[in-house]
Amino acid sequence: MNPDKYILIDCDPGVDDCFAITMALSQNPKVKVVGITCVNGNVNIKQVAINTVRTVKLCGMLDQVPIFKGCGDPVIIMPGAIDSTAFHGKDGMGDVPDVEPRADESTGACPEKAYVLVTRVKSLNPHEEHGVNAIMRLAKEYEGKLEILAIGPLTNIAIAVRLDPDLPKRLKALHILGGTLRGHGNITPCSEYNFYVDPEAAQMTLRSFSKHCLVRLVTYETTLDHAVPVDWLDQLLNGKDKKRTFFREIYKRCQNIQLHKISEGLLRGYTICDIYAVCVALEPNCVKKSRKLRMGVELGGHLARGSLIIDHRNKGSPFLTEGTIEVIEEICLVQLKDMLARAFS
User: What pLDDT, in 10s, does the model give residues 290-326?
Assistant: First the structure.
């Protein structure tokens, strides 16, 4: 049976990426994940690769899904390190390296000083090909069929399209988790994390792809507007099987932070950002409302760098995308929950 979709996941695990990867892999064989490319984001690139391997191993698909290390730095390196270890933990996965599958020799990594994990490159990543090269190659191999699910900073995608300007024409679609629609940021007052980590890559990607292939954008506010009910997710993760135990443990740190925000009225429920982009990519009929808009990413300033500027009134600017991008505003929460539940069935 031929798959209905061919997906390449570009990611930076992060706990929410782990949920997203598991959701996508659970759709096999209907959905074929042709590869996963890793990018510096929530944690450093070495740790991102380790976290990806642990997740794919949990799903029993290490022999089916190739994993590639991509870019370890943004397009332009700015002063000061940016990561989300305060939220995801020092290892990006809740600082529980002993939860199966463990971060040890079996996944190509071994614990060092409790949190810092070092990589045994050969066992972690037998695919020596760089993630950017893998993106270009797979787009040619699956020309006209491949959809990229980009749920981290867009560095790999931006570099790939600079090396291969025809890349957008080869894709069926590009699905992005990033940016804001109403300027409600999660890293600065107005900037979303993925775009803030590498604003130049976000701008390069949006401008390069908008004219040549379908681009769907799930913004941070869309995740906030469709929060997962606390009781529902707690019940879903309540079980003794390996997968539920793994996610229950790696999610505890994020969970406690979000429960505190919920108690303060800052969140409506759990927001596992990347899962929304997966749902849109794999079940497009979950979209209840969207708009096609032109936009650009602010590259300067002290307050607004990395913020997404949307041309709501069609004023125009040479710094905006030439083509429109479909901004997802409303999705069916029932479908999202159903897809997430199937990942644990």
Answer: 999 999 999 998 889 999 999 999 888 999 999 999 9
Q: Domain count of the chain?
A: 1
pTM tops 0.90: yes
- Both structure tokens of 193: 């994390």
Separation between Cα atoms, residue 74 and residue 56, nearest integer Å:
25
Which range is least confidently modeled, 107-111, 137-141, 307-311?
107-111
User: Virtual CA dihedral for 55, 277, 251, 93, nearest 10 degrees?
Assistant: 50
User: Domain range spanning residue 144?
Assistant: 5-228+265-342
* Four-residue CA torsion sign, 204, 206, 212, 214: positive
Burial of 220 (0-12, 13-18, 19+ CB in 10 A): buried
Q: Which amino acid is at 20?
A: A
Whether 189 is in a domain gets the answer yes
For residue 305, CA distances in Å to 192, 199, 200, 202, 273 come to 10, 7, 10, 11, 21
At 70, the amino acid letter reads G
Residue 53 CA to residue 125 CA, distance in Å, equals: 8
Does residue 240 belong to any structural domain of this protein? no
Q: DSSP 3-state assignment of 310? A: strand
Instruction: Give the pLDDT band of residue 104 (cuts 50, 70, 90).
Output: low
- The CATH number of the domain where 58 resides is what? 3.90.245.10
What is the rounded distance in angstroms from the CA atom of residue 69 to the CA atom of residue 49? 6
Domain membership of residue 249 (yes or no) is no
**Where residue 186 falls among pLDDT bands split at 50, 70, 90?**
very high
Residue type, 170: R
How many CB atoms are closer than 10 A to CB 242?
A: 13
Q: Are 156 and 196 in contact (CB under 8 A)?
A: no
The span from the CA of 103 to the CA of 100, in Å, is 8
